């Protein structure tokens, strides 16, 4: 931080300063004035602001960059992406593995920020990116840019990375990884593929890409769609009789009911699961009077969309979560993907507990501190501002290509998530038919079994996190930091 303040007045000065003083890139993006709600000292440098990826359209992607608290020059740089599509990566920043815990202020007003001892910035430099344009704090001056899809999102994010590494030259030689969860199961491999194509064709600066991680990620309609029934049976949520009936009439094809009797048994399965919290079957459901009142006005929605989860834990897990993934009855198929606000048939989503994020990110002083657009552009956890096409199909060919080329991959699953159940991720990783080098075994944290893993040839690892819901670092922050740091360092998990 100790740069002359002149450097922060105008981007031109900033550039000059960085040339003269050698070193810190993009100093105008540094959070020198602190952050509203945070009273302490930053454990490392933080930067935030826009990268303009299309000057003529005024298309700007917003990022928050947290420098590693260990060894910034050696530690990997990780790009983090939340899913949706349409959800902001501030979800990860605020509720999962960011540098702060946000304590909502029940009396109104801004949340209080505390340091998060399990922040992923303990072991990595991490970029939280709002993507595509229209999501979170990212925007375009051309409305037409909000019509987007997998292909465009991947190429825009690649353009972002190239410009970002130009601005943060001192991080160009660090190992680089891409990570994300839920619908980012599509963003991560498709972006990785763009990055590798860029490396192959000599795009500069060369990104030192090493691998990627996906948590409870959307991958393939057949594998993901077939995952629910075996999950529900294994977890004791449906009876043996129903399991036998549904398996024999559907003949294993649950994602696309083959005939009437299969459809009938699938409806029975859904009835048994309806009142569960799909993001964590162990968490109670949220039945606020408001939720019940609203839900009765919107009968088109299955019950499980209306009553989502609740927890007693004060800071780490929200009462309500939504929009980080596709609802489980409809695996992601090709074509337009309805966004959560569209599914809910209203602008907001009822009874959400995303107050901390929403009040903080829509505050004028916070926007100013973050170098973000004015607060007349509303931040939403998951937006309906964009229209999104799933236009790159199954992700399996991307995973095959990337792992065959030597890029490392960690596919992890909170094993109590019913939204993208582990059974699908376990099945598709196995379907690649790579040799098993580290046979299914428990992995440990604090002397306890934290989950299970199977290691394959080509540096592909499938790992579960025992007792975790959809957003693993939110439910199991200690265990998440443990496997994350071991995997990044190339150590045995
Ligand atoms: C901020 O820190 C100061 C000095 O340590 C303390 O007096 C004050 O109460 C703190 N404010 C909040 C909101 O924590
Ligand atoms: C970071 O790691 C490098 C290489 O191991 C070492 O030379 C350097 O001193 C370390 N820096 C810090 C701040 O620990
Ligand atoms: C369709 O339904 C019958 C039961 O009526 C079942 O035995 C059959 O295997 C089902 N599946 C297919 C693929 O035809
Ligand atoms: C991966 O994709 C690239 C680009 O399409 C292709 O040239 C390459 O042969 C593929 N590699 C593998 C191992 O599939
Ligand atoms: C696995 O990753 C390590 C470290 O990046 C690399 O040296 C090795 O070649 C990779 N193995 C395969 C089979 O790709």
TrEMBL record:
Q: Classify the source by domain of life.
A: Eukaryota
The biological process GO terms on file are: proteolysis; secondary metabolic process
Keywords attached to this Swiss-Prot or TrEMBL record, sorted alphabetically, are: Carboxypeptidase, Disulfide bond, Glycoprotein, Hydrolase, Protease, Signal, Zymogen
Q: What is its EC number?
A: 3.4.16.-
Tell me which Pfam families the record gives.
Answer: Peptidase_S10
Which enzyme class? hydrolase
This chain belongs to the protein called Carboxypeptidase
The major lineage groups are: Eukaryota, Viridiplantae, Streptophyta, Embryophyta, Tracheophyta
């Amino acid at each position: 931080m100790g740069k002359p303040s002149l450097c922060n007045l105008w981007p031109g000065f900033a550039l000059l300063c960085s040339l003269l003083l050698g070193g810190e890139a993009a100093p105008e993006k540094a959070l020198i004035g602190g952050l509203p709600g945070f009273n302490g000292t930053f454990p490392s440098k933080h930067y935030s602001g826009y990268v303009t990826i299309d000057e003529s359209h005024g298309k700007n992607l917003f990022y928050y960059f947290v420098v590693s608290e260990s060894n910034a020059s050696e530690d990997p740089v990780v790009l983090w992406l939340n899913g949706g599509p349409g959800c902001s990566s501030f979800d990860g920043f605020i509720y999962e593995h960011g540098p702060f815990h946000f304590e909502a202020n029940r009396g109104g007003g801004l949340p209080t920020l505390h340091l998060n001892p399990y922040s992923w910035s303990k072991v990595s430099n991490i970029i939280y990116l709002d993507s595509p344009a229209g999501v979170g704090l990212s925007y375009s001056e051309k409305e037409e840019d909000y019509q987007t899809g997998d292909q465009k999102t991947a190429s825009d994010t690649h353009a972002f990375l190239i410009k970002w590494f130009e601005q943060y030259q001192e991080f160009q030689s660090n190992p680089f990884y891409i990570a994300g969860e839920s619908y980012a199961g599509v963003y991560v491999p498709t972006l990785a593929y763009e990055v590798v194509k860029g490396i192959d064709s000599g795009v500069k600066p060369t990104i030192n890409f090493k691998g990627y991680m996906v948590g409870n990620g959307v991958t393939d309609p057949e594998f993901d769609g077939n995952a629910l029934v075996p999950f529900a049976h294994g977890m004791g949520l449906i009876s043996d009789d129903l399991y036998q009936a549904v398996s024999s009439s559907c003949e294993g094809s649950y994602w696309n009911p083959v005939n009437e009797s299969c459809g009938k048994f699938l409806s029975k399965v859904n009835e048994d699961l309806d009142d569960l919290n799909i993001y964590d079957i162990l968490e109670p459901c949220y039945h606020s009077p408001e939720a019940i009142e609203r839900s009765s006005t919107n009968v088109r929605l299955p019950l499980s969309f209306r009553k989502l989860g609740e927890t007693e834990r004060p800071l780490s897990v929200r009462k309500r979560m939504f929009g980080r993934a596709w609802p489980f009855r409809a695996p992601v198929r090709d074509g337009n993907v309805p966004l959560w606000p569209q599914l809910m048939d209203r602008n907001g989503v009822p009874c959400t507990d995303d107050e901390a994020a929403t009040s903080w990110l829509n505050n004028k002083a916070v926007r100013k501190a973050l170098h973000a657009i004015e607060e007349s552009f509303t931040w939403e956890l998951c937006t309906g501002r964009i229209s999104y096409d799933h236009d790159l199909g199954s992700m399996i060919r991307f995973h095959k290509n990337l792992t065959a080329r030597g890029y490392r991959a960690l596919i992890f699953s909170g094993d109590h998530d019913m939204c993208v159940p582990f059974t699908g991720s376990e099945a598709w990783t196995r379907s690649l038919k790579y040799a098993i080098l580290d046979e299914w075994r428990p992995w440990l944290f604090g002397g306890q079994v934290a989950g299970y893993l199977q290691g394959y040839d080509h540096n592909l690892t499938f790992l579960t996190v025992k007792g975790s819901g959809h957003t693993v670092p939110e439910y199991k922050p200690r265990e998440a930091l443990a496997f994350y740091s071991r995997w990044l360092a190339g150590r045995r998990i």
